């Protein structure tokens, strides 16, 4: 996909292996100039707006801790309170599993496996990182992160021996077959859904954001990448007519943000609640979450998701 996108651009339009460090703007002859500083010390100056030959819009697609989002004033993403491990297992002789998604849940922990083909199986585990009402990291999760940094094999052993040792045998077998280089750990983060609606705007002039820079969300619906592709489509529909026929480029950017914010807020909220229900906690909060998930949310969710995806 990256190669296909790159082939549509001029040969020198992309600068690889560089990270954006800062953004600032300067007023020059009544126009706004965006100055981008990269981590190698170089700067890129772009007249933000419509020129005689082109439209210039700064779109920050620089991930969860986006420099562009910070410049716009968006609130920093927060931790979901969960940790997630992922890996890929390879069966050279074939795994003989049905092509279906299997989900496993118990208190504070959930897991899943998905066979994308006849020889590989993708798996994940998700754990509540907080304990009770004190919201203190449990000792096993501290060990979990330390072992991950030192050695992926130690991380896998910790999973099998402590965190999911009483899960279904087929899940444990899949994790044992994991390729060490595919093991990853992450602390899923998200931006509060209401911040997309009532918080600081995700645009200023001809500067905006897309993808995780705009709407980081927990992975429980698997829609992070999909919504990022939607961002690109909506941006193209908004900016394309201005490029062809002229018009208000700032209005086009604003229209993109206004069109996206409600949909993104709903998807992010549903994803978070889905994850909360899969890793239930102790006490009255756990009982409340279980009631909502089993008796209310489970009945409403199918129709809600169908509406979101229309």
TrEMBL record:
Pfam families: FAD_binding_3 (PF01494). SUPFAM superfamilies: FAD/NAD(P)-binding domain. GO terms for molecular function: FAD binding; monooxygenase activity. Coiled coil: none annotated. Residues 2-262 form the FAD-binding domain. Keywords: Monooxygenase, Oxidoreductase. InterPro entries: FAD-bd, FAD/NAD-bd_sf, MOase. PANTHER family: FAD/NAD(P)-BINDING OXIDOREDUCTASE FAMILY PROTEIN, OS04G0423100 PROTEIN. Belongs to the 3-hydroxybenzoate 6-hydroxylase family. This is FAD-binding domain-containing protein. It comes from Acorus calamus.
């Amino acid at each position: 996909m990256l190669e296909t996108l790159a082939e549509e651009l001029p040969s020198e339009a992309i600068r690889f292996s560089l990270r954006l460090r800062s953004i600032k703007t300067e007023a020059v002859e009544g126009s706004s100039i965006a100055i981008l500083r990269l981590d190698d010390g170089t700067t890129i100056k772009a007249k933000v707006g419509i020129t005689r030959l082109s439209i210039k819009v700064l779109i920050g697609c620089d991930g969860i801790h986006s420099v562009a989002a910070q410049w716009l004033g968006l609130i920093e993403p927060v931790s979901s309170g969960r940790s997630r491990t992922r890996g890929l297992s390879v069966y050279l002789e074939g795994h003989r599993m049905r092509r279906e998604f299997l989900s496993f849940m118990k208190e504070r922990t959930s897991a899943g496996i998905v066979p994308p083909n006849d020889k590989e199986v993708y798996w994940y585990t998700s754990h509540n990182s907080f304990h009770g009402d004190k919201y203190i990291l449990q000792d096993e999760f501290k060990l979990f992160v330390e072992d991950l940094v030192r050695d992926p094999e130690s991380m896998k052993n910790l999973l099998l021996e402590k965190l999911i040792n009483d899960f279904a045998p087929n899940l444990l077998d899949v994790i044992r077959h994991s390729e060490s280089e595919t093991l990853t750990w992450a602390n899923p983060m998200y931006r509060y859904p209401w911040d997309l609606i009532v918080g600081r705007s995700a645009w200023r002039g001809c500067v905006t954001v897309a993808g995780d820079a705009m709407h980081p969300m927990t992975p429980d619906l698997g829609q992070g990448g999909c919504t990022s592709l939607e961002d690109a489509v909506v941006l193209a529909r908004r900016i394309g007519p201005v490029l062809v026929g002229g018009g208000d480029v700032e209005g086009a950017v604003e229209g993109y943000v206004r069109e996206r914010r409600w949909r993104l807020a709903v998807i992010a909220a549903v994803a978070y609640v889905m994850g909360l229900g899969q890793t239930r906690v102790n006490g009255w909060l756990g009982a409340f979450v279980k009631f909502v998930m089993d008796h209310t949310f489970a009945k409403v969710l199918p129709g809600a998701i169908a509406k979101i995806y229309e």
